[in-house]
Amino acid sequence: MIRRRRYGTRRWPYGALLVAGLLVAACAPAPEGLEFPPSREDGGSDAPSAAVEECPAEAVPPAQDRPLISLQFSLAENLRIVTGTEQVRFTPDLPTDELVFRLIPNSPLSAPFGNLLTITDVSGEQVSDYGYESADAYPTTPGGLLVVELEDEVAAGDSVEVLLNFELELGDGTFDRFGTADGLSWWGSGYPLLSWEPGVGWSRDQLVTLSGETSTSQAADTTISVEAPEDLEVLMTGDQDRPEPAGDGRRIWTSTEAAARDVSVAAGQFDTADAAAGDTEITVGVLPDADADAAELAQDAASIIEEFEEFFGPFPYDTLSIPVLPDFGGGIEYPSSILLATSQRFILVHEIAHMWFYGMIGNSQFRDPWLDEAFASYAEVLVDASAPDSTDLRTPGDIGGSMADFPDTDEYFSVVYGKGRAALVTAREAAGPAAFDAGLRCYINSQAWQIAVPGDVAVAFADLPEALRILEEAGAFR
To answer: How many CB atoms lie within 10 A of CB 303?
Structure first.
């Protein structure tokens, strides 16, 4: 079936070197008045990002020179080993003599459960060498960052191409981005994640033990292929095509996503059901004997999307896939996909809100986690009309703190999610719902497909001083 494409995808202009590399890999085992400091100690800037039309009527499209990424995954019969290749064409907006990729499975949160990402080869005409940096990765792993050294500096506006070969080991299932359980395998961020912030440069933030994200990644024009045992159904980021036979009892699944910051994949014996929210096609997959009903969940997701569109504008993607994992008690958002590991509806609401706040409007999830988590938590109130605890706004701590500012997950959740939601709800009440909603739509449309900073929120709400005062007092613009 040919589906509508909101943003066009580009064909990869394969060079001879990279084609050869792929062939080899294929043969291998399968506001006004507010002042912002010029820079922050943890990297990046609080100042508003690149200027666009002050309040565009529609979301600005993805950048024409965004990264072009092709991912190939092959899931072994034991459902624990994924071999892969990643082909990248990257066009920096600042000069650089290296490429930096984040290795999320090697974090101290994930690696103790048996998850591991290792690089087996790096090639490309401009590649000089490669190695790992720690970034506080779990000590038994090779490191949390892959650094690829280039022969010469790449000028701003020029492009560099590289091919990475890697192996991902999946540990025992738990509430995480990676795992295997009940005949199911899943991985999100299960490949080297290009970590560039336009106007800033490479993100080398440390990995943390808190239950949360630390990535900074551009929206990339992405294609994905997954080879898996033929008895499994695959649900993943992107607009999926029908699977094709691959021989030896295996099938290949492919998808495309024109603007994806990251990718998730789940492969299991899913029973699936579909629903639609306007032009958005939703697919939910549940495992045999699961308590969840795929059809009901798909319809619920469709209704949530339609409610959010009244506030935030059109859903950012043509499709949404929701594989339901065993009940580990949470959910994890990815572009056009959600790894859902709970039956609690508010988590589904929260993760769908992330399609706007993280998926479309990116942020440094290490430096400015409130820009996605506080807004997604605020969105829960819009759908379920439940007021946050009146004491949340008095919680100690700045909602604009970085992941390094919180001693544990409980405090992080309490401040960024709880206090952040309360601050946004209170700001809306102070400004008036209509004015606040218009300011938020301005923020969404102007920052779509970029990496936003707190200053962008301040600019969008510049005519709402009462709202800005509340956010400032809550520590949003620290």
So the answer is: 12
pLDDT tens for residues 169-188? 999 999 999 999 999 999 99
Q: How large is the greatest C-alpha to C-alpha distance in the chain, in angstroms?
A: 66
183: left (phi over 0), alpha (psi -120 to 50) or beta: left
Q: How far apart are the first and last CA of the chain?
A: 49
Distance CA 441, CA 435 (A): 10
> Mind listing the domains of the chain with CATH numbers?
67-269 (2.60.40.1730), 270-358 (3.40.30.160), 363-473 (1.10.390.10)
Q: How far is Cα 446 from Cα 235, in angstroms, rounded to an integer?
A: 31
**Mean pLDDT value of segment 317-322:** 99
Torsion over CA: 122, 126, 128, 129 (sign): negative
Q: Is 132 left (phi over 0), alpha (psi -120 to 50) or beta?
A: beta
**Is the pLDDT score of 19 beyond 50?**
no
As a whole number of angstroms, the distance between CA 69 and CA 91 comes to: 12
Q: Which residues pair with 337 in a beta bridge?
A: 321, 334
DSSP 400-419: T--GGG-SSHHHHIIIIIII
185, 195, 345, 382 from 146: Cα distances, Å: 24, 10, 37, 40
- 3 state DSSP class of 350: helix
Angle at 393 between CA 392 and CA 394, to 5 degrees: 90
How open is the CA angle 259-261-264, to the nearest 5 degrees? 105
**Nearest C-alpha neighbor of 110 from the set 180, 170, 193:** 170
- DSSP3 helix / strand / coil % (the chain, rounded to 5): 25, 30, 45
